[in-house]
Every structure is written in structure tokens, then in C-alpha cells.
Amino acid sequence: MYKPSNSVPFTLRPWTLTDLPSLVRYANNPAIARFMNDQFPHPYTEEAGRYFIGLASGEEVAHLFAIEVEGEAVGGIGVHPRSAIERKNAELGYWLGEPFWGRGIITQAITRMVAYAFQTFDINRIFARPFGTNGASQRVLEKAGFALEARFAQTFFKNGEYHDELVYALRRRE
């Protein structure tokens, strides 16, 4: 498992409406949006931010969290429990403001989120689906203990281009 060396101190906490300015400031970045699901808009507007914070803060059991550094929300992370035959699984998603890349924050945030998810939800597997061209995301997942389970050629379609979909997963340790 990942052992942070000189990671920046951060907190995972619920989103609040006071996070709106920093959410829009850091999320409104094409370098982030290019590797996100289309539900993560670009440009990232105040309207989109209000909608997201409303969803995140209205949860019965929190599964979407702000990544806070020095009192400011600079990214987000969440697990999305699945249903029906996938009910023992949850999908992990995350993003971090570009000024905070390369500081060990997201790998440690993933590790904390995994511990929270296995403690909170009746799941046995957490998976993430990075783009095949997103090497940074692949590396942080591997540092956090995830293993590559599959590569699907040309399944994502983003900005007029096809991209490979990778599936990384981590299973509950008994």
C-alpha cells in the first residue's frame, strides 16, 4: 500500500455551498475535464457547481467529498455504490486542481476513501475506469493498491475522439 513521503496535509469532508467559488475555480480546467465523464462539464459554471453541491450535500450516507487544502476545496473524490447484480461493487471517481498535482494528495485521498467505503458500504470491490491515455491516474491507482483488471479498446468517446477504457480494482481484504 502507498506510503506518502512529503504529502501536503489535506482533509476529506462533505461539500458545502461555501465551496462554490473554489469548486468553479479549480474544476473549470480543460486539463481536468478531458479525462472526466461528460457529467463533469466544461466549462465548469457556477450553475453546474450549485447543482453538484446540492446533490452531494443531500445524500443520506455521504459518498462524495471535497478535498480540502488550507481551508479551500481543491478537488473531489467519491464512491458510487452500484445496484442489482453489481451491488457488491462501487465505482471510484476523483479529480484534483492542477496546482496540487504531483504532491501525493490524490493517492492518499484514494487510500482514505477506500477505507471509508469498505467500512461504510456493503461492498467487496471498488473499481475505477481511467482513460488509457491518463498515465497519472493509472499510477496513483497502482500506488493505492489497485490492480489493472481489463483494457477495453476505444470504448470512451470524448471531444470527438475514441479512447481506451481501463478498469482498475481493489477488493476488500478480510
UniProtKB/TrEMBL annotation:
Keyword field: Transferase
GO MF annotation terms: acyltransferase activity, transferring groups other than amino-acyl groups
Domain N-acetyltransferase: 10-173
InterPro entries linked to this entry: Acyl_CoA_acyltransferase (IPR016181), GNAT_dom (IPR000182)
Superkingdom of origin: Bacteria
Annotated PROSITE patterns: GNAT
Protein name per its UniProtKB record: Protein N-acetyltransferase, RimJ/RimL family
